[in-house]
Amino acid sequence: MRDHGADAKVFKAFCDVNRLQILELLRSGEKCACVLLENLKIGQSTLSYHMKILCESGIVVSRIEGKWTHYKISEEGSEYALKLLQTLTQRETVSSDCCSCESQSHHG
Amino acid sequence: MRDHGADAKVFKAFCDVNRLQILELLRSGEKCACVLLENLKIGQSTLSYHMKILCESGIVVSRIEGKWTHYKISEEGSEYALKLLQTLTQRETVSSDCCSCESQSHHG
DNA sequence: TCAACATATCAATAATTTTCGATATGTCAG
DNA sequence: CTGACATATCGAAAATTATTGATATGTTGA
User: Fold this and answer.
1) Residues A82/B85, Cβ–Cβ less than 8 Å
2) What are the two backbone dihedrals, phi and then psi, of residue B24, each rounded to the nearest 5 degrees?
3) How far apart are CA B40 and CA B90, in angstroms?
4) First and final CA of chain B: distance in angstroms?
5) Which residues, 6+ apart, have CB-to-CB distance to A84 below 8 Å?
6) Residue A31 and residue B103: Cβ atoms within 8 Å?
7) I need a surface site. Which of A64, B42, B65, B85 has the fewest CB within 10 A?
8) What is the Cα A90 distance to its own chain's centre?
9) Is the distance from CB of A81 to CB of A10 less than 8 angstroms?
C-alpha cells in the first residue's frame, strides 16, 4: 500500500505554474536564487517558499555556497518521480486476476 | 515555450490524496462511480469533482453506459504524462551551449 | 565589529481548492 | 408518464496553498 501523502508531495512540484517556470529555468543548469528571482515575477520570500516545495519533492536539490544558494534539478529525484508515475498509472499486476477485462460493478 | 497551465493540469491528477486513491482503485481495471464511492470516504459530489479533474488531466477517461459512468486509466494519457515529466526534468538541449557545467550566477 | 547582502522564516492576508448539501439532468423499470 | 436511481452541477463554507512585508539568520568584505 502506497503512502499517498508522500506520493502527492512529489507531484506538487509540477502542479503550479511558478514552479514549472522555475524548473524550466533550471533545465539549462544550476542557478542561484538571485538569478531565478531576476527571471520571475515573484518576490523573494515567494521564491523561497516555492524552492522549499521543490526541494521537498526531491525534484530539486540545493547547495549553499557562502551567501548564495544554488539549485538544480536532481536526476535521482526525477527518475524516482518517473518511476512513481509509471507505477501509479500501470495496470495492477495481481497474479490471480490476469484476464478479467470487464468493468467492475455491483449491479447487473 | 511550454504552456505551464496545461502542464500543471496534467499533474494535478497526482497531487491530491483522494485522487491518488482513486487511481489506485482504477489500476485494477475500469470501475463505475458507485464502486469508487463505496471504497472512498468522500461524498458523491466530491467524487464527481475529483473525477472531473482526473478526466481533464487526461489520465482518466470515462464511458457512460446508461445510468452509469465507468472510469478507467488512459494508457495514452499516462504515456503523455510520462513523456511530459521526462521533458520537464531533462537537461535542456541547446545546440550551442553543451559543456557549460558551472552554475549560472551574476556575481563572482 | 559593522554594514551590506542573500536567503529563510514568520504572521497576516489573499487566492485557490476541496468539501458538502441541495438540486438538476438524464436513464431505466414499471 | 412516473418514481427510483446515478451522476453532474451549483453555491456556500471549510480547508489548504500562495503571496506579501517584516524580520531573523548567516555570510562577506571593509
Assistant:
1) yes
2) -60, -40
3) 36
4) 30
5) A7, A10
6) yes
7) A64
8) 19
9) yes
List the nucleotides on chain D closer than 7 A to a protein CB. Answer: 5-11, 17-22, 26-28
Element (H, E) at B22: helix B17-26
Three-state SS for B107?
Answer: coil
Beta bridge partners of A29: none
Comparing CB atoms, the residue among B32, B78, B101 nearest residue A89 is B78
- Concatenated DSSP letters of A52-84: HHHHHHTSEEEEEETTEEEEEE-HHHHHHHHHH
Torsion of CA B91, A42, A16, A66, to 10 degrees: 50
Q: How long is the CA B35 to C1' C7 vector, in angstroms?
A: 49
Strand C positions with any atom < 7 Å from protein CB?
5-11, 17-22, 26-28
Give the residue, B106 or B70, on which the prediction is more confident: B70
C-alpha cell at B13: 491528477
For residue B40, give the C-alpha cell.
Answer: 472512498
Cell numbers of B25, please?
A: 482503485
pLDDT in tens, A4-41: 999 999 999 999 999 999 999 999 999 999 999 999 99
Whole-structure pTM value = 0.92
Cβ proximity of A61 and A72 under 8 Å: yes
